[in-house]
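Q: Please design a sequence for this.
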């Protein structure tokens, strides 16, 4: 599979702006619409692009996010596939991945509060608890998402990520808004006409509703879901224990991390560790060097850390409970 510089330009532009029309994208990458359409279809056919998802700040809809790490026991490959399929089908799992290291699977759950999460987790333990040797639950306070600037070897100057998180500030949505978010969370490359046809309204209604939700920051961005192995990247993350940092200390640490264009996510958590740094690097040495410099620059702040490799992403949907809301 051959990916050239023009392909990387396409991927970079789609990474934050996956709903960009072909005409606009063609102008950005200096191609004709016909040539761009051919390349885009090829990237999809070759499984470089796995899908397109609108990033929705569900905290603005009254939901919180939680991370649960699972370590399995007495599990063969068939049973592991069964557990993963079970979690993938859960309407409150936003992200699901297989990992290597101290844990086997990580899942990001959405829930209205800790009681709701407890009810969801009780059901999981009832069905598969005998196969968990341990688990770790933390609350995701804020999830920062950065554009994949490494695709173009771009430097980052400012801390301007998209995000979901902070204290919930529920905003009123009607059934049409929810329906639009469901469609965008499944495939945000759909144009206004396609969504309008599915929901039984006009093109202009869809256009105005999406723009309104973007202005309210309910919709943060429209992202491309990429096959990292196809672009020669490896997903490593570090779970970092911090030594009671001040707010100013945290801001310095976050600003330092975002300067590395291979850092794609920063997650502030309430739990056994306080920060998760997620990277997409060319090799393990690059990740090790990042951590070495991080420790050198913040030796008083970093107590300890654990590293993991994400070996496969099974699910990404920033509005997984949408269909459930529509049924109410």
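A: Design:
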């Amino acid at each position: 599979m051959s990916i050239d510089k023009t392909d990387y330009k396409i991927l970079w532009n789609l990474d934050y702006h996956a709903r960009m029309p072909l005409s606009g994208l063609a102008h950005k990458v200096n191609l004709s619409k016909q040539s761009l359409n051919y390349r885009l279809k090829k990237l999809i056919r070759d499984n470089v692009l796995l899908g397109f998802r609108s990033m929705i700040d569900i905290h603005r809809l009254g939901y919180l996010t939680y991370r649960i790490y699972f370590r399995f026991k007495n599990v063969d490959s068939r049973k592991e596939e069964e557990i993963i399929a079970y979690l993938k089908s859960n309407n409150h799992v936003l992200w699901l991945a297989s990992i290597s290291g101290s844990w086997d699977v990580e899942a990001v759950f959405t829930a209205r509060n800790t009681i709701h999460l407890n009810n969801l987790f009780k059901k999981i333990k009832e069905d598969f608890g005998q196969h968990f040797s341990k688990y770790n639950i933390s609350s995701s306070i804020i999830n920062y998402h950065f554009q994949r600037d490494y695709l173009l070897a771009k430097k980052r100057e400012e801390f301007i990520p998209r995000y979901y998180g902070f204290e919930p500030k529920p905003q009123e949505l009607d059934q049409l808004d929810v329906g639009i978010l469901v469609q965008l969370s499944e495939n945000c490359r759909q144009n206004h006409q396609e969504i309008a046809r599915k929901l039984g309204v006009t093109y202009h209604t869809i256009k105005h509703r999406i723009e309104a939700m973007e202005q309210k920051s309910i919709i943060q961005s429209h992202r491309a879901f990429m096959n990292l192995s196809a672009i020669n990247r490896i997903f490593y993350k570090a779970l970092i224990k911090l030594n009671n940092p001040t707010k100013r200390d945290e801001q310095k640490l976050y600003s330092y991390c975002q300067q590395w264009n291979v850092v794609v996510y920063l997650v502030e958590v309430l739990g056994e560790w306080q920060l998760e740094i997620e990277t997409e690097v060319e090799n393990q040495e690059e990740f090790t060097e990042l951590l070495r410099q991080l420790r050198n620059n913040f030796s008083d702040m970093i107590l300890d850390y654990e590293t993991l490799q994400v070996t496969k992403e099974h699910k990404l949907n920033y509005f997984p409970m949408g269909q459930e809301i529509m049924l109410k």
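Q: Thanks. Anything notable?
A: The chain has a mean pLDDT of 95. The longest strand covers residues 302-316.
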